[in-house]
Structure formats: structure tokens, C-alpha cells
Records
---
Amino acid sequence: MTRLLIVGPQGSGKGTQGVRIAEAFGIPTISTGDVFRAAVAEGSELGSQVKAIIESGDLVSDELTSAVVRERLSQDDAERGFLLDGYPRNVTQVMHLEEFLEGRGDELDAVIELSVPRDESIARLSLRAQEQGRTDDTEEVIANRLAIYERETAPILGVYGARGIVVKIDGVGSLDDITARIISALEARGLNRSAAA
Ligand code: AMP
């Protein structure tokens, strides 16, 4: 059972690395950004609640986001462990998650911090905007999202750091090198990859 969280500024590559690490450990990736984008694409009720917020780069309410995550974590495949990407994103969500996990006798094993210089994140985001045409990758929205990261998300690393579970990884380099760095840092903490991977 491996319970992980990956944290990093937009453009740090956390989505890509999150999927690779989850595969290596044989656990599902739970990305709140992906859940919200899928809901918008489907035109579901959740989608209509979050569409404008996502497009501005602001955060969806903590209550709604935490409810979505609780429901996802309650599905069978998350019983063996999970990798959270993009949640919790502020200290209130850290408390919501903790309350939920404690209720089932669980806690996070490690928090992967992908560290990438600001200029590099901005360059990668601009490239992704051209390639994928995400509506929240315009220059103005990118600046808003990075400011929110600094103000609201970076402090969660202080909370988890005080518990000694943050694994800081240099996020500059080739995709494969970064994946290998993360896996060896997790293994050094006694977290083992699934035999199936
Ligand atoms: P991401 O792909 O993780 O950057 O998420 C895209 C957008 O979804 C964010 O800019 C927010 O509007 C929303 N979002 C994703 N995760 C959260 C969260 N944990 N709390 C609030 N809003 C979120």
C-alpha cells in the first residue's frame, strides 16, 4: 500500500511524472485537474459548476474539491494505494484529506516535491499552450495560477515537511532521469514498486 502526493508548480511536469510513478507502483493516479476537465468536457453538473473557475485559473471551492476526492478515494482501486496530483492544494484541503484518511486508518507515506525554477515552468507552460491549446494556459491565467501556487500551495510543503515526509526532487532534466530520481528517492524511504510494474 503506497499513498503518495506529488506537488509542484504548474509546468513542473508533475502530471507526467505522477502518471509514470503511479504506474511503477501499480496504483491509480487521482488528478483533480483531470477530473474537473473531464467533467467540463462531458458537460456534467460538476462541469458547469467549475468551468468558469478553471478558465480563470482560480481554485474550485475546498468543499467541492474535497468531496470529489473523497468519492474517488472510496472506489475499490484506491484501496491498494494512490497517487494524488493537484490535491491537496492548500492547507484547508490538507486538513480535509487528513480527516478522511484518519477515518480509515490511513496517512500519506510520502510527498514528492518537484522543484523547477520559475522561468523554466513558464517556458514549459507556454509550449504546452501552443501544443495542447488548454484554455487555462494563456499568459494571464498562467501568471494567476503560479501566484496561487506560491501563496496557497507552497505552504502545504511546510506542513508535510514538519512531518518529515517530503521528498524533494530536482525537476530539471530528461523525463526518464526525473522518473528514476523519484523512484530511487521513494525506494530509499522503504517504499517499494509493485512486482507487476
Ligand atoms: P491542474 O491541472 O492541477 O493545474 O488543475 C487545473 C485547474 O483545476 C486549477 O487551476 C483549478 O482551477 C482546478 N483545481 C485542480 N485541483 C484543485 C484543487 N485541489 N483545489 C481547487 N481547484 C483545483
Note: The chain has eight helices and five strands.
---
Amino acid sequence: MRIAIGSDHAALDAKSDVVKHLASRGIEVNDLGTHDTNSCDYPDYAALVSTSVQQKESDRGILICGTGIGMSIAANRFKGIRAALCYTEELAMLSRQHNDANILCLGARTQSVSYMIPIIDKWLDTAWEGDRHARRIEKIETNSRGQDAK
Ligand code: RB5
């Protein structure tokens, strides 16, 4: 599996630890930044990771900011992206089984790395159930009215 990962400055250290964990699992990781502690803007990294997943350069993505909220809002503006902010293993599992979430969002100011790792592992290891969920996911795209709709 190829994973694209991104964070802002608030989650730089957490991202480094998560990258190490993913590598230890034999996962191919594409770290799209940020790469230093300078203050930066989470939508820029949400865009890089979302585009990587959209273009199938990566199978899935992980985005970490202070809370995970900004990353999830930003990533979900990209067509075909289903970003899920998961604070429990159960949510991580359900986001895969029901929503086929292709980006996992986490919060480095609200979750320790040791808390995140089991959530990440559950998310990586859970398959989408398809079936009735396929119709619902299709409707996410077909019901979308676009940015300029009245
Ligand atoms: C950065 O200070 C912070 O706003 C960001 O990491 C994130 O929590 C936004 O949702």
C-alpha cells in the first residue's frame, strides 16, 4: 500500500513518528510535508495529499493538524476524497467499512502518538464492505452541487 501523508507545523513531530510506524509496517510512504517547524497553512498540505490520492499516486492518505478538523474540512473539498476525522478505533473501522474513507485525519494536539497508532492500524487494516454502501458513496458525488450553486 502507498500512503501519502501531510501535516502542518502543529503536527510535525507526530507525523515523523507516524511515518516511522508506517515504514516499520512495510508501507510505502510519501511524506508531502511540512518538513520544518515554521508556521504554515493546513489547507496547503490537505491539497497535496488529496491530489496525490485523486491522481492515484497514493492508495490512501493521512493528514494531521492540531485537531484534524481543518484538514478534514479542506480535504473533503476535493472530488472523490472521503476524509474522516477519527478519534477512536471504532470510528476508524466504520469509516472504512461504510464510507470507504480514503484519507484519515488526526489531531496532534488532542491525541498522543501512542493513542493514534492503533487508530491508524485499524484504519489501514479494515476493508470497505461495498454492497449498499456503494450506492451511498456514489450519491456523495452525484448529489454534490459544486462551489457556485445557488
Ligand atoms: C494551527 O494552529 C491549527 O489551527 C491547525 O493545526 C488545526 O488545528 C486546524 O484545524
Note: The mean pLDDT is 96.
